[in-house]
């Protein structure tokens, strides 16, 4: 198996993580060896590497596959904070309570499982010894983007890897890196009423984004680090009755629309690194 990995560190780590979950039985390991396929060489290294990563991906449980695919909303080399990610998973409805564990505990277990299986790599550890952030290897990111596009799991817009022209059917989840008038025209012709999450982390020219009222099924809305958010109308925020997660972190916003008090299902409101000093007077009553 080491020979088939061709000395590539990512391939070795990926196969090692897979074997660590298998019984120490010859037949099981032989099955993994046969699944790897032909040995990697200079001409086949990329295809072979993709084959090995796919083998590890296919061995994941359905819940872990869903959580992993979700990471393609982030750009290459983006540092993904654990706390933010698990709250988003919960807001999306990916996580259920099980065996006496809360949704938060189950989501954090999923996070650590992805690290232990080398699907993502740890980049930051807190003073308490717990993982605080992770990153996705660029080859793994390519794999999950292709899987996501194939399954119409997440639609990417303004990313270099793909665009909405690859979207099949209606948009379920939308991740936008940069929006201009051309993309705005494309979105104008799309049915946005079924979009469950909208991610615009550090996105530019947000003023071209369609009105929030068109995203009536949103459960997750993330505007983190969109510095010009004040130029975009947030008047329709109170129309998002299903919203569970809202992040205005790092946007420089100085006040909240009073309509936020009608978001009775909201579980996470991230206002870190903003100028917002108080909530609408009747928000805490809800």
In short:
This protein is of the alpha/beta class.
How is this fold's topology laid out?
Blueprint: H1 9-19, H2 26-36, H3 45-58, H4 62-69, E1 80-81, H5 82-92, H6 103-116, E2 121-125, E3 131-135, H7 138-151, E4 155-157, E5 173-176, H8 181-188, E6 197-199, E7 220-222, E8 245-247, E9 268-270
Helix pairs in contact: 1-3, 4-6, 5-6
Beta-strand segment tally = 9
Count of separate DSSP helical elements = 8
Radius of gyration: 21 Å
Oligomerization status of the protein chains: single chain
Strand order of the largest sheet: 4-5-6-7-8-9
Terminal residue distance: 58 Å
Low-confidence stretches: none
- Structural class, from secondary structure content? alpha/beta
Strand content: 5-15%
Largest sheet: 6 strands, parallel
Instruction: Describe the global form.
Output: globular
Helix share of residues?
A: 25-40%
- SSE order, one letter for each helix or strand: HHHHEHHEEHEEHEEEE
Q: Overall mean pLDDT score? A: 83
Keywords: Plant defense, Repeat, Signal
GO molecular function, one term: ADP binding
GO biological process, one term: defense response to bacterium
Protein name: Disease resistance protein RPM1
């Amino acid at each position: 198996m080491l020979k088939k990995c061709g000395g590539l560190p990512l391939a070795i780590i990926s196969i090692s993580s897979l074997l660590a979950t298998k019984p120490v039985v010859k037949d099981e390991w032989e099955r993994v060896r046969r699944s790897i396929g032909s040995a990697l060489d200079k001409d086949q290294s990329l295809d072979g590497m993709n084959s090995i990563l796919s083998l590890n991906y296919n061995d994941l449980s359905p819940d872990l596959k869903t959580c992993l695919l979700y990471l393609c909303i982030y750009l290459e080399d983006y540092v993904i904070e654990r706390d933010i990610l698990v709250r988003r998973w919960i807001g999306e409805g990916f996580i259920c309570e099980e065996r006496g564990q809360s949704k938060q505990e189950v989501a954090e277990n999923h996070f650590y499982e992805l690290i232990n299986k080398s699907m993502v790599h740890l980049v930051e550890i807190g003073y308490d010894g717990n993982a605080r952030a992770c990153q996705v290897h660029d080859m793994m990111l390519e794999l999950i983007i292709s899987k996501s596009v194939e399954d119409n799991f997440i639609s990417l817009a303004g990313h270099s890897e793909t665009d909405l022209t690859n979207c099949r059917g209606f948009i379920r989840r939308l991740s936008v890196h940069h929006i201009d008038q051309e993309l705005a025209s494309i979105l104008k012709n799309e049915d946005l009423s079924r979009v469950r999450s909208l991610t615009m982390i550090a996105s530019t020219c947000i003023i071209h984004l369609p009105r929030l009222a068109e995203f009536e099924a949103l459960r997750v809305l993330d505007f983190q680090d969109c510095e010009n958010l004040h130029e975009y109308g947030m008047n329709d925020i109170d129309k998002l009755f299903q919203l569970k997660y809202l992040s205005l972190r790092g946007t420089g916003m100085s006040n909240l629309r009073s309509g936020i008090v009608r978001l009775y299902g909201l579980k996470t409101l991230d206002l870190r690194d903003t100028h917002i000093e108080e909530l609408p007077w009747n928000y805490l009553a809800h």
